[in-house]
Specification:
Elements: H1 4-9, H2 28-38, H3 41-48, H4 64-87, H5 101-111, H6 116-134, H7 142-159, H8 163-181
C-alpha cells in the first residue's frame, strides 16, 4: 500500500541552482530509503532504479512520466553525441525521429560553449526546465515523487563540480596527452 502523503510530507524543499553553496537537506540514498518505506513494491523498484542516465534502448517503465523523461534525456544524449561527432568530422548515429528542435538546439548551444563547466551548467538548467514542463500537477502523485528524485540527483551532480579541481584535472590530462606524443 502506498502512503504518498506521508512520503511527500517528509521530502524537504531545496534550491536547485548550481550556484548555491548550501548543503542539500537530503541525499539520494535517503530519498530512495524513504521511497522504499512508503511506496508499493512496483514503485519502490522504479524509485530504486531512478537514474540520470536512461537506457540506450527505450524500455517502458510503467510510469508515463519516467518514460517521457528517459526519452527526452536519451534524445539529448544522442543529439550531443551527433553534434560532437560532426565537430570532429566523424560518423555518428542518427538522432531518433522523436527528437525535437529544442533538444538539438540545446545540444548545439552546450557544445559551442568555451568552458565545460558552463556547458554542464547550461545542460543542467535545460534538464531542470524539461522536468518543469513534464512534471505532474498533483504534488502527491508517484510521478511527483519521481520528479523530486530526479531534481535531487541533478542538483547533487552539479554540486560536485568544482572549477579549480576541474582545471587541475584538465591540465593533468592535457599534459599526459602531450607527453605521449613527444
Amino acid at each position: 500500500m502506498e502512503r504518498l502523503y506521508y512520503l511527500v510530507s517528509q521530502l524537504p524543499a531545496f534550491q536547485t541552482s548550481g550556484e548555491s553553496t548550501a548543503k542539500l537537506p537530503i541525499t539520494t540514498e535517503y530519498y530512495k530509503d524513504l521511497c522504499s518505506r512508503f511506496m508499493s513494491d512496483r514503485n519502490k523498484k522504479l524509485a530504486a532504479a531512478l537514474s540520470l542516465e536512461p537506457p540506450r534502448e527505450s524500455e517502458p517503465t510503467g510510469s508515463v512520466f519516467l518514460d517521457e523523461w528517459y526519452a527526452k534525456e536519451r534524445n539529448l544524449r544522442f543529439a550531443l553525441a551527433q553534434v560532437r561527432a560532426q565537430k570532429m568530422k566523424k560518423d555518428a548515429k542518427d538522432i531518433p525521429v522523436s527528437t525535437d528542435g529544442e533538444v538539438i538546439q540545446a545540444a548545439r548551444t552546450a557544445t559551442g560553449m568555451d568552458s565545460p563547466l558552463s556547458a554542464e551548467q547550461f545542460l543542467n538548467e535545460y534538464r531542470m526546465s524539461v522536468l518543469d514542463k513534464i512534471a505532474p500537477l498533483d504534488m502527491f502523485s508517484v510521478d511527483a515523487v519521481f520528479s523530486y528524485g530526479l531534481r535531487l540527483m541533478l542538483t547533487e551532480r552539479m554540486k560536485k563540480f568544482n572549477r579549480d579541481e576541474g582545471l587541475a584535472s584538465y591540465h593533468k590530462i592535457y599534459e599526459e596527452i602531450l607527453g605521449e606524443k613527444k
